[in-house]
Amino acid sequence: MDSKGPSLYAQAGPSIDMTRSMEEDSLVDGPLISADALHSAIRREFQPVPTHFHAGLLSVLHVLYVVLSICLGVLCVLKFGQEDVCMKILGNVKGDSVIVFAKVALWALVVLFTVCVRRHHNRVRSRGYLRFYRQTQDLRYLPLTIHSTGSVALLALLAARLSQTVHTYMMLSVLGLELLVTVPSLIYYTVKVMQFNGERAAPDVSQEEISHTYSVSSQPTETGFRGGSSLEEVVEKQADLIEYLKQHNTLLSKRLLNLAAEH
Fold first, then answer.
1. CB 197 within 8 Å of CB 48
2. Which of 80, 84, 146, 82 lies closest to 113, judged by CA?
3. Fewer CB within 10 Å of terminal CB in the chain, N or C?
């Protein structure tokens, strides 16, 4: 029994080796993904953020609304000698009611602007531009916060039942204060987006790899040193980076599977 065992294994050994070599040859001779195709699939072209057009348009509409509201309040509500013109244009509708209705329409436009900006910035975040996403995080919601606060103030004025003159002046003051705060924030946001589009920089992950390589090659770094950034900022950056890497790995896996299926 013992003498036959080694001979059987000795006879089966060459056949097993031949089978393995044939499988390896089939894997080597199979369709391979070219380096150019893989590089073109992984490489991402820079996509600009178009929300600065929306911010500029919203700023112009806001300025027009406030100017027309002031004209309407002075001429039609306070009635400084233009009653006939107001009656022809507005009819039986009161001037302050027109201002309130237009304010609701403007608030709806601000909501649409906020939703649009949030959608585009989420795409920017998914492409790896985490620093720009964090820098504009508060600016995205600032116009909606200001307009919502102004709408609450207008509702409080309507419920206060003040005299017509005081009510009109207070309402125009609220609208003017909204304009003074909202338009500069929209202009600042527009400048930030235009700078981002003009730089056409690589994603933050690529920039950090380049800067890390340069810092390691040029000068040594101290272990455990953190240059003035707070713990909350570090945790937020790490969370954004982890979320981006998860989405990036998922996308790369899908692209590799598609390329493997094509080839």
1. yes
2. 146
3. N
Q: Could you tell me the residue ranges of all domains in the chain?
A: 51-202, 231-263
Q: Which residue has the higher pLDDT, 236 or 55?
A: 55
Residue 185: both structure tokens together: 């924030």
Distance CA 186, CA 142 (A): 9
How far is it, in rounded angstroms, from Cα 35 to Cα 235? 36
Structure tokens at 156: 């409080």
Give CA–CA dist 160/169, Å, rounded.
14
Query: Rounded mean pLDDT of 111-117?
Result: 96
The Cα 137–Cα 128 span in angstroms is 15
Instruction: Tell me if the pTM is above 0.85.
Output: no
Q: 157: closest CA among 263, 124, 165, 27?
A: 165
Most distant CA pair in the chain, distance? 124
Is residue 147 within 8 A of residue 182, CB to CB? The reply is: yes
Query: Helix or strand or coil: residue 43?
Result: coil
